[in-house]
Amino acid sequence: GYFRPLVAAALATKTDSDERVELFKAIERFIFVMFRVGRFHASYKSSVYYRKSREVRKRSVKLSSVTQELNQLVDDNADEAIATFTARTTRRFKEGNGFYDWRSLRYFLYEYEYDLSEQSRQDKLGWEKFTQNEKDKLTIEHILPQTRTNEYWHDNFEEYTEEQIRYLSGSLGNLLPLLRSINSSLQNHSFPDKKNRPQKRGYNNGSHSEIEVAQNEAWGPDEIFNRGIRLLKFMGERWNFAFKNDKE
What we know:
The protein is mainly α. Helix content is 59%, strand content 4%. It has helices spanning 4-11, 17-37, 46-57, 63-95, 105-120, 127-131, 151-156, 162-169, 180-186, 191-195, 208-214, 221-238; strands at 138-142, 175-179.
């Protein structure tokens, strides 16, 4: 919230629109890495950027310098943010439902869907679906269900304990954005049935994220792991930071 005055000041300043866009990108990156990943205190640097808002409005500081400062702050604190993210994610698995309990999951999965739509130049699941409160709003689907009543899931995960199944179910690679009506109709179906539903909506004719998942022949631990790694690598590329290694 404390970035709103800076945004307003930037819009009220006569400058190149590209310079404003770069500032807005830097603000969004700062918010995501510092607050959504790193869980820094909500007032972190608030006094600094309230002051920057006044300076921008008075034209005593250039937008480009504020942009550079914001990006440098993220660069300097990214390792700490990732360490916090890793620790809190571990706790989410031990005490709850893993990544499913991450409050910024919808925003992150939207950004991934948006990136896929940019590549295909076709929008299938817009931002309004991630935020609206109507009956048909978006929910997060567990591809491997939290409760395995279908024989397919027992067969594909028979060597795992119930605790391990809970961990796999809450893994990032197992979570998929779906419209509420689609989610409820798929329920505990097998993966082939979720993919292909004659005369009904299935993964193979859904959003870009669903279609990508539908390219898999089956859905097991390897598929969950590989998709999770791909999503985390996207996170690093999208917000320009890096996990230290694959283990992290």
